[in-house]
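Board notes (copied after class):
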Amino acid sequence: MKKENKIEDKIENKIENKAGRAAAQGELLCVRDLHKRYAVENSRTMKREYTEVIQEISLTVRANESVCIMGRSGCGKTTLLKILGGLLAPTAGSVYYKGENLFRYRQKRMEEYRRTQVGFVFQDYKLLDHLTVRDNMILPLMLEHKDVGAAVRKVEEMADRLQIAGRLEYYPGELSGGEKQRAAIGRALMNDPELILADEPTGNLDEASGRIVMELLTGLQKEMHKTLILVTHDKEIADYCDRTIMIRDGRIS
């Protein structure tokens, strides 16, 4: 057992050294041989069965690029996005962020990664209905105990860039779908994260609203020098990104 552990540690160290060199060359994320499986109890046989959602995925993402992960519903793309965001641990494999193994982070550091290094954009917005747009957007800054005056100015500047400056005192229920998503994008960018993870950001929008959202999102990504990883099943949305990775049945195809 000790011998096997030493071999595993040597392999892990080699991968970490390689990931560290890649990070020095501008790679923000490095994924190696990623797997994710879920245990499901078969109601007929009463036996535990395993479903492989992600299998043998390896990829790299460079700083400041936009990457689309594309595939049909159920192919594993959202699961992959959650793993990259530190919301879900893989069954096997490694994710390196700036050369460090993400899933060797202690809990406090992982929470900091999710709060400050990653901005999440969800299909259903995840805005708090009892807060105004202004308060939804300022919330990440308040959780980091930022100066209130500077935070207010930052929200107003971002709202102006997202063309919702006139909606800051509105509640989510008073907004159109496109306006909700723009507010959600603004909130995701408040802490100036390195990485934006967007899960079907136009999935609940009509074509015109989706086009506006994508133009604003990719425009801000380039202007602010962010890295964007976007999940979609829509080819037209994928075309907004620098490159596309196709996933089929949990594997890169």
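Comment from the instructor: The first strand starts at residue 27 and ends at 41. The CA atoms of residues 160 and 166 lie 8 Å apart.
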